[in-house]
Amino acid sequence: MTCPDLSASAQSSSDRSSIPEDARDVMSEGDIARALRRIGHEVLERNKGSEGLVLLGIPSRGVPLARRLAAGIEQVEGHAVPVGELDITLHRDDLRRNPVRTAHRSRIPDGGIDDKVVVLVDDVLYSGRTIRAALDALSELGRPRAVRLAVLVDRGHRELPIRADHVGKNLPTSSTERVHVRVAEVDGLDVVRISGGDAR
Ligand SMILES: O=P(O)(O)OC[C@H]1O[C@H](OP(=O)(O)OP(=O)(O)O)[C@H](O)[C@@H]1O
Ligand SMILES: O=c1cc[nH]c(=O)[nH]1
User: What is the pTM of this model?
Assistant: First the structure.
C-alpha cells in the first residue's frame, strides 16, 4: 500500500485561491459575532449548562471559531470550557485523489473526550465529508457521551446523512457556488462571501 505524500508544502483548497472579485458578502463581522453568540447560548441550553462540554474546532477556520464560542460560553457561565483542535486530514476520503495536504496534530484538552459532550465546530457544512472524517478521527481518541455539530454556515448539498445541531446561517446555494469564510485570526478580517453560480 502506498502512502500519500503529506509532507509537500500544502495549502487548503480555500487558501489556494483568493476570493473571486464577483463574490458578494453574505455575513458581516457583526453577523458572525451575533451568530456565534446565539450558538453559544444554544449549546448551553441544549447541554443544560457547560458541564462535560468539550469544543473541538476543525482546522483551519473551525479552530478560531471554536475558541470564540468557548470564550462566549465562559462569559455566560463564568468558567472556562475545554477547547481543542481535531485534525481530520488522514481520515479524509479524498486523500488518495488529493494527497497534497499537511497533517496537523490534534490537540485534545487534558480531560480527554471520554464521556464528554463533544461539540465539533467548523466554518462551512457542505457535502458532510469533513464531518464524517471528523467522527472517524474522534473514534480513535475516545468515546464521547454525545457528539454535536456547530457550523457557521450550512450551504446544503449533503452527500452523507449528516446534519448540524447549531447553524449560524442556512445559506441556500447552487452547487456551482462557493462559500468563503474568512476569520480575523487566520485572514485578518471577519466576513462570509459567496462566489460563482448565478447572481442572486
Ligand atoms: O462538508 P464538506 O464538503 O466536507 O465541506 C466543508 C469543509 O470544506 C472546507 O474545508 P477545506 O477542505 O476547504 O479546508 P479549510 O478548512 O482549510 O478551508 C470547510 O472549512 C469545511 O471544513
Ligand atoms: O462552498 C464551500 C464548500 C466547501 N467548503 C467551503 O469552505 N466552501
Answer: 0.90
